[in-house]
Amino acid sequence: MKNLPLIFALLLVTHPLWGQTQARPHKVRTGVYLNNLYDLNMNAHSFYADFYIWFKWKGDFDPTNVEFVNSIEKWSVTNNSFDGDSTPVKLKDGTNYRIFRIEGRFFHSFSLNRFPLDRHDLDIQIENPDADQDSLVYLPDTTTAAAVIRPSLNLVGWEQLGSQLVHKVHDYGSNFGNPEENAHTYSNLTFSVSLGRPLSFFILKMLLPLMVVMFMSLGALTLHPDHIDTRSSLPIGGLLTAVFLEQSYSDALPDSGYMVLMDKIYLLVYILNALVMLHVIVAGNIVSNNAQDRARINRLDRFETKLAIAYFVIFWLGVWWLV
User: Fold this and answer.
1) I want to staple 194 with a disulfide (CB 3.0 to 4.6 A). Which of 61, 110, 161, 184 is the partner?
2) Helix 294-322 crosses helix 208-222 at what angle (to 10 degrees)?
3) Out of 17-21, 47-51, 266-270, which region has the weakest mean confidence (pLDDT)?
4) How close are the terminal C-alpha atoms of the chain, in Å?
5) Is 3.30.420.40 the CATH classification of the domain at 22-196?
């Protein structure tokens, strides 16, 4: 019993968890200024970006040896020190500072499910392949705006919805065959720019022509059932016009194995157009078999007018539900 304090003291000294303290990872404050964004290529799933990136840290190490995880065509990426000097600038508070200008092509998987109301978060991911999460962490610079877009930057056909700089841990789930050197997790800093198509593009260039086609097709039901030739030509013309309109925007999109939002709206138009055509044919048979029963034909005419209104309401309810 007298030796218990001595044994306990020895355990405190010799146990690996008690005898040492875990070193904290070095923190690097980082910021990004987007200068240009261009050549959004949905077929190649890529975009070009030109931006400035700066690093601020304390200590005798160099955290600027970063890798842009989602960059493609590595040979085309330019990495130039802003001041042409490889020596960090020492700020008044003792912080090391370096800034670079980067230009390159980056990968982004464009999802077009919501076209033409699609929104895309174009991201640029930064990691250090020489230091894992436990030794080096990249964080957004809190002393100034860390994710900035040039105010005069204008992307034709797109609206800028904002930008952000987010830190996360990237777990690869593998040591790449070298458990002694390669770690599983790395500090990942992601700069993202949110872009969306203007609502006016959807309403004026996509939906308005389709609404005119629907008016033309439904106009067949407002004509008197006696005019079978004119009535049958309207939905046929509307159907052909809808096919050409759909083809015009489909040619500008990459091949995909799913239906985009606009495809579903056109499918609704095709179904309603087919129903109009079917009703015109049925009404034509009724008129030809009951040519002397004018009262029945007049009732059919009034019913078809109400049916045209119902189909138009169904069209808008369907668009509202899909959107």
Assistant:
1) 161
2) 160
3) 17-21
4) 78
5) no
